[in-house]
Amino acid sequence: MAQKRIFILNGHPAENSLNRTLAESYAQAAQEAGHEVRLTHLHNISFDPDFGYGGYSVQKPLEAELEQVLADIEWSQHMVLTTPMWWGGVPAKLKGLFDRALLPGRAFNTRETNWIGMPSPMLTGRTGRVIMTSDTPNFFMRLVYRNAMLRQLRDQILGFVGIKPARFTHFSGASDPKPAKIEQWITQVKGYGTVAA
Q1: Which of 109, 121, 130, 190 is 20 to 30 A removed from 98 (C-alpha atoms)?
Q2: What is the Cβ-side half-sphere exposure of residue 101, based on CA atoms within 13 angstroms?
Q3: How far apart are CA 139 and CA 153, in angstroms?
Q4: What predicted TM-score, i.e. pTM, was given to this entire model?
Q5: Distance (Å, rounded) from C-alpha 110 to C-alpha 113?
Q6: For residues 173 and 195, what is the distance between their CA atoms, to the nearest angstrom?
Q7: For residues 122 and 161, what is the distance between their CA atoms, to the nearest angstrom?
Q8: In tens digits, what is the pLDDT along the chain, a chain of 197 residues?
Q9: Is the separation of the CB atoms in 106 and 70 below 8 Å?
Q10: Cβ contacts of residue 57 below 8 Å, gap of 6+?
């Protein structure tokens, strides 16, 4: 099995969470399998999440923590994101990270477009895995919400900048799961980490 460079972003803004446990479980299994791993917890980085200026012509300088996140993505061959679903989307701080860090000239190129006029991605050559936790049952996510958050993360964010394919795992009933269920999820995530999937 080829070794990979893996960047893991725990997108939960709290210091301790199920998402942190899952991110660290993935990292541990990946390291034990011989992969190179960089792990960042959203809680530990400080930045202004507000894009603020409303356009790309005048941009806020990126804080050192955001520069490091970009450097870790650029370094990686595989990116893993763990995130809860809050109010149908990602936490505000995680959305702010995307707003601030995934900018033209670094993540996509507005000067080079495809046949339908979409900017060309600049982070190609990387695969991804999104591990999402929520209380929403899987069937409800598909039938009622039409996998809106999955499509946003996989297609409109990661895919837009070139990180694909981005596989998606959804663990539901995450607010108060039984210990056996948590162990089951950890085992599943460790399996992904072992093979860098």
Answers
A1: 190
A2: 25
A3: 19
A4: 0.94
A5: 6
A6: 26
A7: 6
A8: 789 999 999 999 999 999 999 999 999 999 999 999 999 999 999 999 998 765 667 778 899 999 999 999 999 999 999 999 999 999 999 999 999 999 999 999 998 888 788 899 999 999 999 999 999 988 888 888 888 999 999 999 999 999 999 999 999 999 999 999 999 999 999 999 999 99
A9: yes
A10: none
Domain boundaries, the chain: 5-195
Any idea what DSSP says for residue 63? Answer: P
Handedness of CA 122, 127, 130, 131 (dihedral sign): negative
Q: Which residue has the tokens 């089951």?
A: 184
φ/ψ (deg, to 5) at 48: -85, 115
Write out the two tokens for 121: 């991605």
Q: Are 23 and 16 a contacting pair, CB within 8 Å? A: no
Output phi, psi for 128, to 5 deg: -145, 165
With both helix axes pointing from N to C terminus, report the angle between 64-75 and 92-101 in degrees, rounded to the nearest 10. 80
What's the CATH architecture for 5-195?
Answer: 3-Layer(aba) Sandwich (3.40)
Angle, CA of 163, 169 and 170, to the nearest 5°:
130
Q: Which two tokens stand for residue 2?
A: 């080829």
DSSP string, 36-49: EEEEEEGGG-----
Axis crossing angle, helix 179-195 with helix 18-32, rounded to the nearest 10: 40
Residues 9, 40: contact at Cβ < 8 Å?
yes
